[in-house]
Amino acid sequence: MTDWPNHAEAWRQWRDAMSSERMHHGWLLAGKAGLGKRDFAEAAARALVAEPGVAQPAGEHPDILTLSYGPKDDKAERAAADGKPFDLARSIRIKQIRAMQKRLITRPTLGSKRAIIIDPADDMEKAAANALLKSLEEPPAGTFFLLVTHRPARLLPTIRSRCRTLRFPVLTDSQLSAMLGEAGLASDPQAIAAAEGSFGAAVRFAKQDLAPIARIVAGLLAVGDSGMTGRGELARLIGPRADRERLQAVLELAQSLTAHAARTAQDPERRMQLVDIHASLVRLAGEAPTANFDASLLPFEIGSLLVTAAPASAAAHG
């Protein structure tokens, strides 16, 4: 498991809570994606359910239940049951919460405590969130919930109010550089800057070799692309047959660099343009996995959004 230098305060609070007479039953692990919140949840859950004199399994633990994205549909469920590759759903569904709640009727297997990890909790369907709320309102004895959340504001206020929050700070550039080195990945300054404190993002940028793309994106934002040269180079670097993972990594990179440009912009009008572009990139990232996009044209769509904030830029679509 990764050694996370940004977890020290969260561990202090968690251990203090474990040693108290009455530990809170609901916890929000909050922070941007890529900060190791899932790793913390798994390690914290193991520390919680372990009891003196009771042997603990090294692998899957019967008293730790993790809910995340399940199979997309019946066909995907059959493929998963057969051990074949399958498509994941884009949300955590109510039937997953219902199945978890059935487990809560029984006693924990090895000790007196059970931990439920939901990751990411902000991607629960509305019905799933409402169902979970009932368990948070009347938790079974010895049951503790760890909700991993990248965007706490998307959770129901009633869920947030019933949980204690652990906040995970972003990593410094030097920490990211050291962690990339420990992972055997190149420590590129542009990838680190674009990751904005997220090790998960830095890893994706390094593995996808996005440093050259970062330079093109920064140029499109700064000076535009009057002759389509920059957009053409962006398409070449992304590749004509880029898979979904690479396209999502590029979209994430473009969002990050646009957000950074907005934060540092001195001109209010340009700042608002960049905010609008960022919102459009977020929408595009959400639509791209399911919409019928031509993968070869998507880089030009990304580039055309970026140049709209540049001085004397070309029109958005050429």
Automatic annotation (TrEMBL):
<dbReference type="Pfam" id="PF13177">
    <property type="entry name" value="DNA_pol3_delta2"/>
</dbReference>
<dbReference type="GO" id="GO:0006261">
    <property type="term" value="P:DNA-templated DNA replication"/>
</dbReference>
<dbReference type="InterPro" id="IPR050238">
    <property type="entry name" value="DNA_Rep/Repair_Clamp_Loader"/>
</dbReference>
<dbReference type="GO" id="GO:0009360">
    <property type="term" value="C:DNA polymerase III complex"/>
</dbReference>
<dbReference type="InterPro" id="IPR027417">
    <property type="entry name" value="P-loop_NTPase"/>
</dbReference>
<protein>
    <submittedName>
        <fullName>DNA polymerase III subunit delta</fullName>
    </submittedName>
</protein>
